[in-house]
Backbone:
């Protein structure tokens, strides 16, 4: 270091809340996106990619979970003084795009999209300011079949991504049901209705008794802190609780019957019931089983955003936390029907419905379900380089492996054999290829099976027997190189 | 519209310089990235994805074309007052990442990356502020084989992306050659050397006579404007011109021989010659033909960035502009060796070499070469919806088509037959499926071949004969639906 340069050297670090993703995690995410995209395209949804920026006035404030207080965007002023902001989800850009091109779009407009979104929040463990979402939406169809199709597609997408059949379920509700019930009970104040939704949303954590208090006057928690309730009378509170208990794992037809008994009477409630019934018919037509999708009136899913059907995909597997305690994994995605996005721009109410999931969240769910896509990722076969004079031999070996579809490279650093083996290990290589002077003279090749080597190191294989046989080191004729390596890479 | 909402409605428009990409263009870009990624992974390069933002001090100013005056980034201040900026290329984040993790990375570190980059420039026709780049770099190897491998990989990647073999060539030069020649001629002033590079860079446009003037005192253009020259004496200028003329389509070995005659003498020139000779040997070992890669001393490729080998991929096809005049398509990507990126952070000089291309530029090159990936994209098969009572029939048909891997959907809007056919046409559907009451009763299905319909509309097929046969409308037994549609989608 010289005195002149030292003081000006920046520190190499990524901004807070932004992460670098290496090959293994990327491979898992790409596999998910490729599989899900294929499903969405088979359902007739077209890909759309909008830019990272939107004008701030066009972006608006449409986050599903408006409850989070410090919600923010990354915004800056363009040189013509207009404010632009990075998109915080994929729905707001869809709304802008649909409004901008509505006249010429095929209608209903069905698109899927994936890509990074940015939220200017306080970063923390597992809480990033940039993450990848994947959305599918139908814009311009009010038909319940459009909701059912989104649900069918989401269910098929989760399986295609690698979730074992039966390990996740999509829970469906309709915002109109509770609204109808409250209308019948004489509750019309929007803030009171919001309080009811907030109370129901705590059912998982507080149970019916806790929620009953929050539906009524309020609840004091263990610390003594008091949360003001929604102020329903006892009859209305019991009706709400009966409503939220109407799911409980029954088949969709039975839940519909129970709901009809609880809800009926108001126009909005009847509309909600009719929509759910039509969704059920369409789900049957689409081949969505009772295992894949259930009606669950306890689902809230966002507070002020959805206007009709809402759905939430949940991983059913019980997983364990760091201390080994069983925990529910919970939601891996969700969506529903919303009608106000395009109207913001055009004044024209255009019905829309969609489903969204976070890609790294789904990757975590896959890991929890025993499918660690990242762990299945391997590095390239490494051809060890001993001598400059023999580079032609090394490159020829690598080329043969590549031509057979196997990732392979010649080591191009300047270190010796030991460092090269360490390099191959760090790259998670399945094999190292050794073409020393002896091998070249004899027309053979030595192949180190690093998969077996790792198993031995991890104590996975019984190694007493293997050791005597010099496990993982194979000398074979040079013309058997590709076949031998292929056997290691693809499993014996 | 009401008076309250009308004044607050934002205009639906995307920010200047940002574009929405629809299915066709996206399909083309994804096909390119998938094909090129597969090649890069087969060469042992691992995927890396860094965040959109870097701290401004870490980002630095490392654009290859530092000549552009209004170069800018999108920057904003984080809540801890540190300035962050969106990456303007993929090399600066690589430098930051490599410096940050150098101790633990496998070395040489070989990564490829693709993703959006952002430049805060004045947008214009064909000039965007967000575009997708795809890079591959080897960090930590000074060996010419590393350059050769990048070149081999780039050549294979272009073919994998769809460029017909022989339609593109990679031209290779080494910055040290001209430096050596100038050293021998007694030119050591950096500004003068930069002037020489600028002059050589204009060879295509001005020819040798124009460049001779720019190498000497200067040149007056047609408008009378005077450009000051690099100030070389006549002998030095002729040596530079002889150097730039040493390529001219000869095979790599011959160009090397010619260059040895012109360059020899200086340490830097000799080093450049030795590197090119080693690159040539490695290219042969890697199976890169003379058609795919040539030595071309006239290549400049950026001015202050590269330190050794430089390469540029060029489309050889002559294309025509809007007025039908023949034009050279020009560069579709490039790269070279650079040694200063990591040193900015750590003080440690780490040699690196890489290749980069813009994805939409390559898509344009593919179109120019007759491979319009976007035009090959099709929409889904549309099942026409006549009656709510028959939805089960429609969904069953769509499900069968999907199960056979064909994209299909039931129309879920609220319009009649005519609008549905128009919808299918806008979606670029290959076929529409008609299951009216008559078909259902008879156990048949009517299929409209929209591919043929479009050919007829475009006058591509001879239609006198076809018309009599009611072309494009097929009535077949219901159980032949999938086979009949598959024949249309996949070509008869």
Residues:
């Amino acid at each position: 270091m010289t005195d002149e340069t030292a003081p000006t050297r920046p520190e190499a670090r990524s901004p807070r809340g932004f992460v670098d993703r290496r090959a293994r995690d990327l491979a898992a995410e790409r596999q998910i996106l490729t599989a899900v995209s294929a499903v969405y395209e088979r359902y007739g949804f077209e890909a759309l990619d909008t830019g990272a920026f939107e004008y701030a006035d066009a972006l608006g404030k449409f986050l599903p979970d408006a409850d989070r207080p410090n919600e923010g965007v990354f915004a800056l002023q363009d040189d013509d003084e207009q404010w632009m902001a990075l998109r915080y989800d994929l729905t707001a850009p869809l709304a802008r795009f649909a409004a901008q091109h509505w006249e010429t779009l095929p209608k209903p407009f069905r698109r899927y999209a994936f890509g990074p979104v940015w939220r200017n929040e306080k970063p923390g463990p597992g809480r990033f300011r940039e993450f990848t979402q994947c959305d599918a939406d139908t814009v311009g169809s009010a038909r319940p079949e459009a909701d059912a199709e989104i649900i069918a597609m989401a269910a098929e997408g989760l399986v295609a991504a690698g979730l074992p059949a039966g390990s996740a379920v999509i829970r469906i509700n309709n915002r109109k049901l509770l609204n109808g019930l409250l209308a019948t009970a004489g509750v019309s104040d929007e803030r009171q209705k919001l309080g009811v939704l907030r109370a129901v949303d705590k059912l998982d954590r507080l149970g019916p008794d806790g929620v009953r208090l929050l539906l009524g006057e309020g609840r004091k928690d263990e610390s003594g802190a008091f949360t003001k309730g929604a102020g329903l009378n006892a009859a209305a509170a019991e009706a709400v609780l009966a409503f939220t208990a109407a799911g409980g794992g029954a088949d969709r037809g039975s839940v519909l019957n129970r709901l009809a008994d609880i809800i009926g009477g108001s126009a909005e409630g009847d509309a909600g019931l009719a929509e759910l019934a039509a969704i059920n018919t369409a789900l049957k037509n689409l081949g969505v089983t009772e295992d894949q999708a259930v009606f669950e009136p306890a689902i809230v899913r966002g507070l002020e955003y959805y206007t009709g059907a809402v759905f939430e995909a949940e991983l059913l597997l019980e997983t364990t936390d760091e201390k080994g305690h069983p925990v529910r994994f919970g939601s891996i995605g969700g969506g529903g029907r919303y009608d106000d996005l395009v109207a913001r721009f055009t004044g024209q109410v255009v019905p829309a419905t969609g489903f969204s999931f976070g890609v790294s969240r789904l990757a975590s769910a896959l890991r929890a379900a025993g499918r660690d896509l990242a762990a299945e990722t391997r590095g390239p076969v490494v051809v060890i380089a001993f001598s400059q004079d023999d580079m032609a031999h090394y490159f020829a070996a690598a080329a043969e492996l590549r031509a057979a579809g196997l990732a392979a490279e010649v080591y191009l650093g300047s270190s010796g054999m030991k460092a090269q083996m360490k390099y191959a290990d760090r790259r998670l290589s399945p094999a190292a290829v050794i073409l020393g002077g002896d091998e070249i003279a004899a027309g053979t090749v030595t192949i180190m099976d690093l998969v077996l080597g790792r198993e031995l190191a991890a104590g996975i294989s019984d190694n007493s027997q293997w050791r005597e046989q010099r496990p993982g080191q194979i000398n074979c004729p040079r013309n058997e190189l590709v076949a031998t390596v292929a056997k290691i890479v693809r499993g014996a």
About this structure: Chain A touches chain B through 100 residues (CB under 8 Å).
